[in-house]
Amino acid sequence: MVMVIGIAIFILGVILMFFSVRNKGLSFFAFLAFGCLLAYIGGHIAIVGAFSLSNKRGAGNS
Question: Is the N end or the C end of the chain the one with fewer CB atoms within 10 Å?
């Protein structure tokens, strides 16, 4: 579940980055920074979720 949320946030960040590139207005850098931040946070959540999931699976097997 945590991984899905992380991936969703990551995709949202990528979409924001894409819109900022198409926009090229005053808010270009703001959108780009926010998109990068969302993508970073989402990726981090997804990685942490994947590790906790694999740890639980490993503990269950042993």
Answer: C
Domain ranges in the chain are: 2-57
Length of the chain: 62
Q: Alpha-carbon distance 47 to 5, whole Å?
A: 11
CA angle 5, 36, 14 (to 5 degrees): 60
Do 16 and 31 contact (CB within 8 A), yes or no?
yes
> Structure tokens of 51?
């590790």
Q: Using a cut of 0.85, tell me whether the model's pTM lies above it.
A: no
